[in-house]
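Problem: given the chain below (221 residues), write out its structure.
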Amino acid sequence: VQISDNWPGYSLDLFTYPQHYYGDLEYVLIPHGIIVDRTERLAKDIMQDIGDNDIVVLCVLKGGYKFCADLVEHIKNLSRNSERFISMKVDFVRLKSYHNDQSMQDMQIMGADDLSKLTGKVSFRCFLLTLFSMFCKDIVGTGRTMKVLLNNIEKCKPKMIKVASLLVKRTSRPDGYRPDYYGFEIPDLFVVGYALDYNEHFRDLNHICVINDHGKAKYRV
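Solution.
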């Protein structure tokens, strides 16, 4: 699903959201209900593609945890209602690549000390997205973060690596990387909500929203 650069978004008045964020947001870019429906469709596409392979789901924290949880739950439900049962294991890795709203040159990978368990497994990533070994990540921007992580994963020689991301951002610095599965292509905006944060705030916001200058200043570190 592609969201155009001139998409005005939805008025905040149409939705409920935590009162402590009043005045900190510009608009709702993607409502929670649409996120849920699109994630269910991604789960169906993944089920069709992976065949009889068992899955190790590698969730990229922290921004990917809600997308990963919802995606895994949809896959489990589809598996229960089909003749093909898919075995899934879930593990976690944490990446830190932003300071305030700026991407850092040096990315930190935490919790990835024992990636050897992925050897011979099907690998996906849920970033938001965020899986098998799927990597679940929340958002793919320039792709630099993904390349660093994938280089580390590939050393373990997994049977297959796939990447699922909830969001892909159109940026002025693309490197040609695209995840195998993604929910929405969005403009080059700093978005928060649905576990995406700005200095650890806004993770409790269900919708994906655009933060305003007041919100950035209020929570800047």
